[in-house]
Structures are given as structure tokens and as C-alpha cells.
Amino acid sequence: MLTNLRIFAMNHQTIPSAHINNLCCYKIRASFKRLKPYVLLGRNYSSLPGLIGNDIKSLHSVINPPIAKIRNIGIMAHIDAGKTTTTERILYYSGYTRSLGDVDDGDTVTDFMAQERERGITIQSAAVTFDWKGYRVNLIDTPGHVDFTLEVERCLRVLDGAVAVFDASAGVEAQTLTVWRQADKHKIPRICFLNKMDKTGASFKYAVESIREKLKAKPLLLQLPIGEAKTFKGLVDVVTKEKLLWNSNSNDGKDFERKPLLEVSDPELLKETIEARNALIEQVADLDDEFADLVLGEFSENFDLLPAEKLQNAIRRVTLAQTAVPVLCGSALKNKGVQPLLDAVTMYLPSPEERNYEFLERISRLLLPFADQHIEISSLTAGNIALTVGLKHTATGDTLVSSKSSALAAARRAEREEEKQHRKNNEAERLLLAGVEIPEPVFFCTIEPPSVAKQPDLEHALKCLQREDPSLKVRLDPDSGQTILCGMGELHIEIIHDRIKREYGLETYLGPLQVAYRETILNSACATDTLDRTLGDQRHLVTVEVEARPIETSSLMPVIEYAESIHEDLLKVSQEAIENGIHSACLQGPLLGSPVQDVAITLHSLTVHPGTSTTMISACVSRCVQKALKKADKQVLEPLMNLEVTVARDYLSPVLGDLAQRRGNIQEIQTRQDNKVVIGFVPLAEIMGYSTALRTLTSGSATFALELSTYQAMNPQDQNTLLNRRSGLT
Ligand SMILES: Nc1nc2c(ncn2[C@@H]2O[C@H](COP(=O)(O)OP(=O)(O)OP(=O)(O)O)[C@@H](O)[C@H]2O)c(=O)[nH]1
User: CA-CA-CA-CA torsion for 280, 283, 288, 293, nearest 10 degrees?
Assistant: First the structure.
């Protein structure tokens, strides 16, 4: 397993690749002082023959650049906005590849998994390192499909900046909102790239408005397009008042002209650019006091005289402060606008030392990533992104520290900080690296190996895949003994199935995909239970009385309460066993065997015969809680999804008709260029296989995005139908 590693240490030493035991310090964080980076000079690895694939040039050098010249960035967007195409152009113009890869031909560098190349989508994030005009850029291309949201989040937390790619004909789309919120959570400065300016329906103005309205961000227009859709041929650099035109004879977009806009040759464009520049200056001055002083002092009479460099510095400050986002545009497919985007990445996004990380990590083997290929290196300075191999006990979301003693120190520190948490100690927040939020899976199905003998191999494969992808959950059905796979969506489970076959050589069988329901209770119920068993000469005797009642707050974990009559001494020895029993009972509701949510369990009495084992206490409590849940009035909760369908006007009616049959609840129908965007809710159970149905209904012209909204109570009729179906009555 490869682990993405972000080196946070900064010291007058590089991080050695000494042979240190693989140390898993789950959720243990260490803090270290920020010190100056060490710069290795004169190491030239330009001759690394055969290390990288034929089409990929070796890096000119694998020297450690000064930290101020490092940019760790991610590319994020809604599915199909053009992240992979943009990344391919970036790699080509930076000299990393010698030919242009194409998602539609399945030969891109970053989409290297077989499933990615076949489907033309990104599933796993890929990291590549290249140089641009003296800067070292570590870039991560992340997936756009909602099933792989966790993969995006695990990348974002180690990045310093991001480029958000938009389809200029669609503006902000559903998944853009999700990744934007994730980037907000990790406080990542961003640049927006309005891609597909060549596409029919592309609108710079519309896309900018959607950034303002839907993302509630302040767009800084650093460029204006020259032409739109079919007429798109270049850009205006608003900051420098220059026009950038791509040579129409060049088939790779490498050649373009940068010329100052002149009154004689471009009077209209110059006028438009000056207006845009003045607006930009006012906007930045509003957000940056230092710049406001400069503009109002020296240049208040004539903004035209303000040097581009002063404006760029101020734009950089507001971008880093995340009070506004620079907006650029282009067409990756038609090879226009990518080089200025790279300039903007180096100019406006932060270097690692401008982000406040205070952690040290240390590992055994270091590799520099080149998508699916790697070069082993002996050392790396702070601020870089690298890979490490062979960590057997780590999982996505863990933080590694340098040694056992620092781990222990960090653990003690973390404990102290936790204790202080209720005192709202802000320092604690600064010390902790935000963990990844693991979304709850909404689908599950059984998975079977080709033969019983292969069950251990399947378990091993699932264990490895889970460590990489914690949004994949695996459990055993206690009744049937079958292995159950729980995932984020149909595509997610399909890809896991495919990976087990390709990467572990196991042909597995999946049962029908089922929705992950939940259950709750509507009123209180009490139950008592006694367990009396003699094993050997030891008698185990427990008597329990519990009450289950519904609670208002939404929580998957039961709230556990103890009556005052329960003696403290008894709790001391048996609390863990009691709580294990309650948790295991609530994992298997009485209606469908689904997890029970929004309940409180009160232990009213507990008597334990001396010598009774804690396992027996757990078993008795669990059985008693299940009895109480069974007695109460019960309710099935089903996952309700946010749905956004983008469809050509002509196909709107059939799409709406179909959604009505799927118990869809339409909230809004927006107009987006020539398309209609249907926004609403639909129960997950009704939307299985929707991509095929939608393709048929709209001749493949519509797209949709789904995201879990909440769990809602099913109406009695639908609930009965479901229960009858599950018990084989219908
Ligand atoms: N017209 C036009 N099409 C583009 C442009 N950039 C990408 N495309 C096309 O849009 C489709 C999606 O491109 P990708 O680069 O795979 O998009 P992505 O955002 O990486 O997609 P995921 O990885 O699946 O999220 C492909 O068919 C591309 O050829 C562009 O600038 N103009």
C-alpha cells in the first residue's frame, strides 16, 4: 500500500530515510517549532534513465528547491469539468510529458487506474511533480464523482492551495459546492479556472455570477475572454493590459503571443480592459488596507499608472487571506489559457511556509510520485509531498510522528488538550491536523469469494482496500455469516468489485445492491431479562432492566443513562460491558436489522452474581435492549438524497414525470443557459440505476449529481411494502 505523505518538518536537516520501525500513531499529533528549510544545491538527477515511462521525461533535477518556490496544489471540481484534461496540458507545457494525453482516448498520466482509463473518470487522486519557471509544483488531480468525496478530502487536508476547475457553460455545479465546502473547512486558498470557454453555451459572465451567488465567494476577474464558444480565441490579462492570442496553426498551444493592448489596434478591448482593471483595483483595495493606502495615496488620480506588480502583490495577499478568489479562463481541450493558469498558481497560491503547519513526520522509505510511477529518494525537505511504502498498520487519516518518545509526548499533549477542550483552548485547535470526515455508506451488498478456501484472500483484499478508503465499510452478517460490503454509491461498489479482481486476482460475486436503511422508535418501552448459565463450575447470573425511548437530537450512537440506584462500584467493573451490549443491540434494529438511531437507553437496574463474566453481562444487556426496542412502536428511516439533474429544455417533461414516479420532491427548476436544472429530493431506494434510465429518457443529454441529504421516516404504506418484501411476502 502506498501512503501519501506530507512532510511538515522544517529544520536545518533534511528528513533522513533511516530504518525506523513503522510506527502507527493513530490520531496522535506532535507539534514542533517552525524552523528554516534546508536547501540542497547542485544535486542533479537529470540522468534517471528508465526510471520513468517512455512518454515521460525525467525531471531536470530532483533537487530540493527553496521552500518559497514550492507549490502544493490540488485540482478539484464537479465531474467532467475538465480537471484531468487541464492536468494533462499542465504536464505537457511544463515539459513533464512529451505528448498530450486525452481522457477520451484513455491515455492520460494521472488517470492511470484501468477503471479510470476505461470510464474516462478520475477515481483515485494522482500526484505528480513538475517544475514551472523555477517553481516546484506538486499537483494532485482529485476525483469529481460524489462517490469518491472522501478521496478528495484526504488530499485537501495536505494541500496548500487549489485550482477549482469549472465548466464555463455550467458554472457552479452540485459537486463543486461540496468540494468548495471541504476546501473552506481546510482553509485552502483557491484560484478558479473557467474551462471549456470554447464549448457551445460557454458564458464567462454566467459562470462568474454563479461563483458569486452559489459559492458566496468574491471573484477577482484577472482575465477576460476574447470571444466565447466557437469564437473563443484568446484572453486579456486585466492586470497587465495585454492580450494573449494562441497561434491557430499550432496544434499543441505551446506558441502564443502576449502583446500590450493599444488604442490604435484594439480601442474597444482596451476600454473594456481598463474598466475591468479599475473595478479590480477597487475591489482589492476594499479587501486589503495596505493596498488601499497605496491606491488612495499615490495613484488616486489615475489607476492606470499603478504598476502591475503592486496589484499582483495585493491580489496574492487577498487570495492567501481567502477573502477573494482570482478567476481565470480558457479551454484546456483547445490548448488555450493553461500557461497563464500555471503562472497564476506560482504567483498567487501560497508556499508551504505561508501555511501554519507545525508538525513533523518521519518515515522509512521515501518516493517521489509521478502518477503511477515513483523514484526513490534519500531525503526531502519540509513543504514537499512524497509517498512512503510498507506501513502495515496505518490507515487514511492517521498522522505519523518521528519516534516512540515523540508519539508518547504527543499523546500526553493531545490528552491534556482534550481535557482543556471544554475550556475552549484555541491553541489546541492550532496543534491538531484536521482529521478526515468519513461519510456514512448508503448502499450495501453481500460479497462472496469464488470458493470457501478463498475467504481469507478476500478478507485480506478488503482489509487493504479499507485502509486506503475508509468510506468503504465491511461487516459480517451475524445471521447468515456473509460478508457485507457497504459503500457510498453504485459506482463505488462496482469499482471495489473490479479492483478486487484486477489487483488481487479474485473473482467475487456480489449480491443485489441494497439501500442502507435505519430504524428508530416512536415511544418508550421497558424490558427485563435474566441470563442464568453455568459454564464448568462457574455460574453466570445477570438480571437487567432497561428502558428505550426516542430522543429529538439526530444521533446514530445511543445516548446511555444510568438510574441513580445503580451502584458506582458495580459500574466501575461492568460499565464497559454494559455499553458494549447496548451498542451491539442498537446496531441491529428489530424491523430490518438496520442500525437504530435517535434513541436513549436507560439502565434501571442491574444485579450480577459474583464471578459472572463481563461477556455474559454484555450478552444479557444486549438481549434486554433488543426486547425493549421490539416492544416500542417502530419506524424505518430511509436515506433521502439531494438530486440535481441538468437537462436540455426539450427533455424536461419526461424527466419530471419520471421523478414523480420515483417519489421525487422537486424544490426548484433553474434555467442554466439552454438547459434546465431540476433540484429536489428523492429517496435513494427509488434512484438505483438512474444513470441508465436518464440516459434513455434524454438520449444521453442529461447529467445528474446525488448527495445524501438526511434519513427520513418512510410513510406507513411504503414501509409495509418494504417489510413485506424483506420477509418474502411480496
Ligand atoms: N469543449 C471542451 N471539452 C473539454 C474541455 N476540457 C475537457 N473537455 C472534455 O470534457 C470531458 C471531461 O474531461 P475530464 O478532463 O475527464 O474531466 P474531469 O473533470 O477530470 O472528470 P472526472 O475526473 O471524471 O471528474 C472530456 O470529454 C474532455 O474531452 C474544454 O476545454 N473544452
Answer: 80
- Per-residue confidence (pLDDT) for residue 534, from 0 to 100: 84
Please report, for residues 159, 517, 520, 603, 647, the alpha-carbon distance to residue 589 in angstroms, rounded to integers and kept in the order given. 41, 10, 8, 19, 40
| Mean pLDDT, rounded, for 230-235 | 92
**Ligand 1 mean position, distance from CA 168 (Å):** 12
Q: Is 337 in the pocket of ligand 1 (CB under 6 A)?
A: no
Query: CA-based angle 567:547:441, to the nearest 5?
Result: 110
Whether 183 and 152 have beta carbons less than 8 Å apart is answered as no
CA of 347 to the centre of ligand 1 (A): 25
Q: What is the pTM of this model?
A: 0.59
Q: Which of 80, 110, 230 to mutate to test the pocket of ligand 1 (most atoms within 8 A of CB)?
A: 80
d(CA 382, CA 376): 17
Q: If you measure from the C-alpha of residue 221 to the centroid of ligand 1, how many angstroms do you get, rounded to a whole number?
A: 23
Structural domains in the chain, CATH included, are 67-348 (3.40.50.300), 365-415 (no CATH), 443-508 (3.30.70.870), 518-632 (3.30.230.10), 637-727 (3.30.70.240)
Indicate the pairing of strand 135-141 with strand 126-132. Answer: antiparallel
Check pocket membership of 124 for ligand 1, CB cut-off 6 A.
no
In angstroms, the CA 446 to CA 514 distance is 9
Residue 211 has pLDDT above 90, yes or no: yes
Task: Give 587 Cα–ligand 1 centroid separation in angstroms.
Answer: 42
List beta partners, residue 367. Answer: 376, 387
Strand pairing class (509-510; 443-448): antiparallel
Amino acid at 296: L
DSSP E strands, 109-173: 126-132, 135-141, 161-167
Cβ pair 442, 515 in contact under 8 A: yes
> HSE on the CB side for 35, CA within 13 Å?
13
Q: What ipTM, to 2 d.p.?
A: 0.97
| CB neighbours of residue 127 within 10 Å | 22
Residue in this structure with the C-alpha cell 438520449, named with its chain if needed: 699
700 contacts: CB under 8 Å, gap ≥ 6: none
- Three cell numbers at 456? 481469507
Q: CB–CB of 7/383 below 8 Å?
A: yes
pLDDT tens digits for range 159-180 = 889 999 999 998 988 778 878 8
- What distance in Å separates the CA atoms of residue 148 and residue 140, rounded to the nearest whole number? 15
104 pocket-lining for ligand 1 (C-beta < 6 Å): yes
569 lines ligand 1 (CB under 6 A): no
Q: List the one residue out of 703, 660, 662, 657 whose CA is nearest residue 684.
A: 662
Q: Which pLDDT score, from 0 to 100, does residue 546 have? A: 95
Annotated binding site: 77-84, 141-145, 195-198
How far is residue 723 from each of residues 287, 639, 719, 728, measured CA to CA in Å? Answer: 58, 16, 6, 9
| Biggest distance spanned by C-alpha atoms of the chain | 105
